[in-house]
Design a protein that fits this description.
Layout: E1 16-27, E2 30-41, E3 45-49, H1 56-63, E4 71-76, E5 79-80, E6 89-91, H2 103-107, H3 109-113, H4 118-126, H5 147-159, E7 165-169, H6 177-194, E8 197-202, H7 205-211, E9 214-219, E10 224-230, H8 245-258
Parallel strand pairs: 3-8, 3-9, 6-7, 7-8
Antiparallel strand pairs: 1-2, 1-4, 4-5, 9-10
């Protein structure tokens, strides 16, 4: 099985791989987010959860290095990477697959950008198609894929950056409920198997609970971290978790933290 760089499964004592401290962003006279601090342990999955308009996307762009904050810093393995793009991988809500390129040639784009020859890039990327449930679709075009398969292809393309941290902005929000649940289950398995360290942006409480080791609640104007929850039991979780009393209790606590 092909893998990305290995990390230990996240736990209470896992080392901090990626973090931000004191992140504040102002546009003209408006402060959008203020004093944000989050930590992502090696091999972990955390979620930033909050209602629409609270600054989640603003924070996402800062963590991805697309924007530089008005204040605060972003660290990867202790190195200050504030405002530096390309050090973490990120995927937006839409899959943004290029319709005129085959699935394989969509996936290899990060490798081509890094200077790999097309033949070598195709060979490297093709090794991961079985793990992502895409075997036999290398020469298909995006229009020939289901919504879930498009998201898998987009995620594999994101992973081809070979960075230790992946930021995902509501990657399953456009899918129907059944496909979305299937993708959530699949992602938890692939993340564990391949050692991703992942930060999710979401406004879905149940998705945050299902996927995460820890949930940070972002509320207010300007957006601030007003609560955070270590989710129990730890991953991997069995299929009874969504209907367990513990799931309902933790969901209620998070809803109360959001103000619902």
């Amino acid at each position: 099985m092909s893998t990305f760089p290995e990390t230990d499964p996240a736990g209470d004592n896992s080392p901090c791989l990626f973090r931000c401290e004191g992140i504040t962003q102002k546009y003209q006279d408006e402060t959008v987010v203020e004093g944000i601090r989050v930590e992502l342990p090696a091999g972990g999955i955390i979620s930033l959860l909050g209602p629409s308009g609270v600054g989640k996307t603003t924070l996402f762009n800062i963590l991805a290095g697309v924007d530089r904050p008005s204040g605060g810093q972003v660290f990867l393995l202790g190195e200050d990477i504030t405002g530096v793009s390309g050090r973490v991988s990120y995927m937006l809500q839409k899959d943004l697959l290029l319709e005129y390129r085959t699935v394989l040639d969509n996936v290899i784009l990060p490798l081509l950008i890094k200077g790999k020859k097309k033949k070598e890039a195709r060979s490297l990327a093709a090794e991961f198609f079985p793990q992502f449930g895409l075997s036999g679709y290398e020469k298909k075009y995006p229009r020939e894929l289901s919504g879930g398969m498009r998201q898998r292809a987009a995620l594999l393309r994101t992973c081809m950056m070979r960075n230790p941290v992946i930021l995902l902005d509501e990657p399953f929000s456009a899918l129907d409920a059944i496909t979305r649940r299937q993708m959530q289950d699949w992602f938890c398995g692939i993340a564990s198997a391949m050692g991703f360290s992942t930060l999710f942006i979401t406004h879905d409480v149940e998705e945050a609970l299902l996927l995460s080791d820890r949930v940070y609640v972002l509320t207010g104007k300007p957006g601030k971290i007003t609560a955070d929850f270590a989710i129990r039991p730890g991953r991997p979780r069995d299929h009874s978790f969504p209907v367990s009393p513990g799931f309902g209790e933790q969901k209620q606590l998070i809803l109360e933290a959001i103000g619902l």
